[in-house]
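tool=predict chain=A
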Amino acid sequence: MTDETPETPAAKPILRVVKGDLTSEELVALVTVVSVRNAAAANAAIPSRPKTRSAWGHPAGMARKPHQFGPDQWRRSTFGG
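tool=predict ok
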């Protein structure tokens, strides 16, 4: 008995050189450029997460905290203690 596998139709080539004769290095460079460009386009289609903003310049940081009464509070009000 022989293992007969059904023949699959020939896959359509992704790239085809129409004119000229490419060396193997040129073909590798061409495939690399096309694959990087396709990957960049695919990544651009994916929605990205919104970037978190730094709280450094938030206006709430400029508001003063209410004054606490008690001994030595004038010093602690300056250093946040």
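Residues 24-45 form the longest helix (22 residues). Helices lie at 24-45, 73-79.
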